[in-house]
Amino acid sequence: MAASMRPLVRRVIRLSGTSVSVHPGGVSALSRCCRCFSGDTNTHFGFETVPEAEKAKRVYKVFENVAQKYDLMNDAMSLGVHRLWKDQLLHVMHPQPGARLLDVAGGTGDIAFRFLEYVRSQQERQKRRAARSTQTPSWQDISNDYSKEDLERPRESTAVVCDINKEMLKVGKQKADSIGVSAGLSWVVGDAEELPFDDDQFDIYTIAFGIRNVTHIDQALQEALRVLKPGGRFMCLEFSKVTNPVLARLYDIYSFQMIPVLGEVIAGDWKSYQYLVESIRKFPDQEEFKHMIEEAGFCSVQYFNFTGGVVALHSGFKL
Ligand SMILES: C[S@@+](CC[C@H](N)C(=O)[O-])C[C@H]1O[C@@H](n2cnc3c(N)ncnc32)[C@H](O)[C@@H]1O
């Protein structure tokens, strides 16, 4: 569906001095009200059963509450291992200069920062390789190289961080400013279920630790398919099912008994972190989620388990 046909009105607000486009459904999830009026169905919020319309509001509150301490808590809860999972995502993605990334539920920008850094280092590597292959060039070679460089200069890579939560994006943007990342990066408030982008726009769609918070996962997958270019890649990093029973038992003890305590001590918020642990248990396992991605229309769907299945990376392509 072309953007012009979508019944959307986009506004522009200012986030710490930067323009971001705001999808009306993004902030308040009002866009889903038609569903609540036309016969509400229930869903889960952690282990609780809630009306569908309620879930998005509660999820919004969770991330609004934890935004300031989100990065610190990630390091504390995973002992830094979330960084390795995210690095691994980039390693599998192996993006090339010029690629356009959409990182949905991108929060404080971890995936987008890694993406831009990865393509920058790829570009450097390609330049070094080209320089080595012409170590003693003639003046003619040099002049040819200059004109070739102009013609072959890759398009700039871009990363769009899209999240429903303004507070998470605000923290991400502050982080980007403090580490000096701005080129090619933009921040958009938007709902994974109704993305504020035209069809066939991105080479790669990522969603890291975000999809289990979405009320209608099938709808989010459809939107991922829509905004990807043909040949584009969907990649989802998410907590999954631990395969080894001993590790599963230890992981259960750690997550139910330690994570809410850490949440209380570090972020002053037990409930949000209890939701986190419960929402992980409610999310489909590796095979079931793979099936959902295939059902949405993606091809060559596969997954990789990290840390014994604590986290899985699912990948699929749009044909
Ligand atoms: C656990 S955080 C993950 C943040 C980041 N991707 C990372 O890996 O650190 C989950 C994010 O999903 C966002 N989120 C939840 N529901 C969403 C929706 N329907 N559309 C877009 N983002 C959503 C939350 O606001 C939150 O920033």
Automatic annotation (TrEMBL):
Q: Which UniProt keywords apply?
A: Membrane, Methyltransferase, Mitochondrion, Mitochondrion inner membrane, S-adenosyl-L-methionine, Transferase, Ubiquinone biosynthesis
Give compartment(s): Mitochondrion inner membrane
Gene Ontology biological-process entries: methylation
- Annotated Polar residues bias: 132-145
CDD domains from the xrefs? AdoMet_MTases (cd02440)
Regarding the membrane, this protein is recorded as: Peripheral membrane protein
Instruction: Identify the pathway.
Output: Cofactor biosynthesis; ubiquinone biosynthesis
The answer, when asked if Transferase is one of the entry's keywords, is: yes
UniProt GO MF annotations? 2-methoxy-6-polyprenyl-1,4-benzoquinol methyltransferase activity
Tell me any Pfam family this protein matches. Ubie_methyltran
The residues that the entry says bind S-adenosyl-L-methionine are: T108, D163, D191, A192
Q: What is its EC number?
A: 2.1.1.201
Q: Which reaction does it catalyse?
A: a 2-methoxy-6-(all-trans-polyprenyl)benzene-1,4-diol + S-adenosyl-L-methionine = a 5-methoxy-2-methyl-3-(all-trans-polyprenyl)benzene-1,4-diol + S-adenosyl-L-homocysteine + H(+)
Against PROSITE patterns, the record matches this protein to: SAM_MT_UBIE (PS51608), UBIE_1 (PS01183), UBIE_2 (PS01184)
Q: How does it assemble?
A: Component of a multi-subunit COQ enzyme complex, composed of at least COQ3, COQ4, COQ5, COQ6, COQ7 and COQ9. Interacts with PYURF; the interaction is direct, stabilizes COQ5 protein and associates PYURF with COQ enzyme complex.
Q: Check the record and name the NCBIfam families matching this protein.
A: MenG_MenH_UbiE (TIGR01934)
> Member of which family?
Belongs to the class I-like SAM-binding methyltransferase superfamily. MenG/UbiE family.
General function of this protein: Methyltransferase required for the conversion of 2-polyprenyl-6-methoxy-1,4-benzoquinol (DDMQH2) to 2-polyprenyl-3-methyl-6-methoxy-1,4-benzoquinol (DMQH2). Methyltransferase required for the conversion of 2-decaprenyl-6-methoxy-1,4-benzoquinol (DDMQH2) to 2-decaprenyl-3-methyl-6-methoxy-1,4-benzoquinol (DMQH2).
UniProt name for this protein:
2-methoxy-6-polyprenyl-1,4-benzoquinol methylase, mitochondrial
